[in-house]
Amino acid sequence: MANLIRCKSCGYVTEEGKVHDVCPACGVPAKMFEPYADPVSPDRRMLLKLDIHPIMVHFAVAFTASLLILHIASIFIRGGLLDNIYSTVKLLALFLPLTVILSFLGGLFDGKIRFRKIMTPLLKTKILLSSLFFILSAAVLILLVKFGVACLMTPGLLTAVLIVTLGVVIKLALIGTSLLEAKFPG
Fold first, then answer.
1. Sign of torsion, CA 176 177 180 183?
2. Taking residues 46-53, what's their average pLDDT?
3. What band does 157 get if pLDDT is binned at 50, 70 and 90?
4. Residue 33 bridge partners (DSSP)
5. DSSP state of 30
6. Per DSSP, what are the bridge partners of residue 22?
7. Listed residue (41, 42, 24) closest to 33, CA to CA
8. List of residues 6+ apart from 110 with CB closer than 8 A
């Protein structure tokens, strides 16, 4: 394993010899770097670097935001384009619960690797919010199947569910970003 160095200014960690004149992350002079010993074992670091949970979360977030944007756009659109939007929205809504489940499972895996247990206070909160996210994503799909294109054309229950869903996603993201650098050594 290569020797690691860390920027004293921003905390950026990289291999020794990869920094030239300035920190690639924050731009301070290279003299701000110090030797760094990774507190996490190489095996655990390898698993964490797979970034399974963050990658899966991006799909769920993108689907949720896209659904809301397309729904808002469909309020103002009529004709053939509306049918295309409805097909896209229905497809996104069909896959959203699956992406939520995969994100949830990835989160359990990440929590187990990062903290060696999944019942920490913040992870419990994330589990509860993820459960709510799944319920809301299923509600979006049910509304679209039950009411069809008509529920896209006017603000109403679908709008409210999508806004709440996006709020839950934002809260999950804020908790998740606060945990990115947290991990047990060893």
1. negative
2. 89
3. very high
4. 7
5. G
6. 29
7. 24
8. 48, 52, 53
Predicted model pTM = 0.82
Measure the CA–CA gap between 23 and 12, rounded to whole angstroms.
8
Structure tokens that stand for 12 in this block: 């950026």
State the pLDDT at residue 61: 95
The CB-side HSE value for 61 (13 A sphere, CA atoms) comes to 14
184's tokens = 């047990």
Distance, in Å, from the CA atom of 88 to the CA atom of 124, rounded to the nearest integer, reads 33
pLDDT averaged over every residue in the chain: 92
Burial of 29 (0-12, 13-18, 19+ CB in 10 A): exposed
pLDDT beyond 80 at 185? no
pLDDT of residue 45: 83
Tell me the residue ranges of DSSP E strands in the chain: 4-7, 13-15, 33-36
- Domain ranges in the chain are 4-37, 44-179
Q: Which of 55, 50, 64, 144 is nearest to 97 (CA)?
A: 64
Model pLDDT for residues 118-136, shown as the tens digit of each residue: 899 999 999 999 999 999 9
Considering only CA atoms, give the Rg of the chain: 21
